[in-house]
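Work package 3, deliverable 3.1, input record:
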Amino acid sequence: MGAKKKYQAVVIGSSAGGLNALKVIFGELDKRFQLPVVIVQHMSPDADNYLASFLDGMKKIRVKEADEKEIPTGGFAYIAPPNYHLLMEKDCSFTLTVGERVNYARPSIDVLFETAAEAYGDGLIGIILTGANNDGSHGLKKIKEMGGLTIVQDPEESESVSMPRSAIETVNPDHVFKLKEIAKFLNSFI
Amino acid sequence: MKKKEEEIIENQDVEIKLLIEALYLKYGYDFRNYSQAHLKRRILNRFQISGLNSITEMTYKAIYDPAFTDQLLMDLSITVTEMFRDPSFYKALRQSVLPVLRTYPRVTVWHAGCASGEEVYSMAIMLKEEGLLHKTQIYATDFNPVILRNAKKAQYPISRIKEFTVSYQKAGGKRSFSDYYTADDETALLHESLKKNVVFANHNLVTDSVFAEMNLVICRNVLIYFNKQLQDRVIELFMESLPGGGFLCLGSKENLQFSVHYNAFEPVVNQERIYIKKYL
């Protein structure tokens, strides 16, 4: 298990059904989890910060919306704000942009994953959850190419199957897990 | 295998730096202090479409082929905008800023980084409804000449009108949004009366200086693309353009809090990033 030490951050992408999926993961996550978590959940452009305050209310790790130039730290999860893309710079700070939609989405999972893969290299864990499109597949592939660890939610238990299926076909991920297994796996890094 | 990937990225980054440098040396377009992650995504995107063999070939083309440079400028510019983007912001502006401006004999407004003009015309509509447009001069500036030409046309795809209409209503619009445009099958043309008090001009926030005193400066979703140093430069530019009591409006994810000029301003509607410059 010594190899596990190298990981520095976790990125999660989810779409349709994502709120419930994130609830399950955060429900099982240990309070002592110390890797920064960055999340893109597809949502309507004029959504408020409900997701961040809801997950924060679960009293596991702290959850907030990502701010521009903020550097993610352990014990926190960061949600991409509605209607902005969330990118990571080489120094691991956040950039928000209002660029065109990618895969019909803003925020797009690919945009976060591809830039985070370059920022963290082989120190990144990428997770694709339920969703009804194929956003995130390219980004997850990039994470794998950079030597990072890739996980996809088992389509068998996904509310929407296309996003995890697409990711599995595109990437051949390291693990296909159910939500509770994802949480358990993450907890093993404590 | 990992090593090879790292080297590919390292080489790409060198090539991208050289391309950015070429745009600066040849045309004076200075992207050197822009978000590197943003630039890289846009440049790689253009590279994939271009059919060229390397980013270095793009640099060659950027130097010798003006049409390609225009294309590249469009890629790197911030061109995505909409009418009444963030309706709550416009509502707050109507409630908290326009009543103050109404007391002035003349009003000057600067839309910095106006892109294709949607937010400029949104402002013109609001000023018109509040009876302020006739005494207002709006300066709408961008560094990209192609996009400025589009902005002047005040013409938008009909497919976007539905979204604009919803936002107009949410922003507290007082009439029917269709009062402001004439449509055919493909496009909606905004009425001439909205353009009358707008001057579109070329201005580069990175390299140009102050050009007039303003009562209100609006620069939304531009600073997020800049590094800290450039953000401070641009805020200084706004600070110099505003007298005490002048207003500054930023994007919903932009914050003066971390600027070196933070103390020169105080929030009017903090949530909507509307600030006022303090009197000395």
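The first strand of chain B starts at residue 107 and ends at 112.
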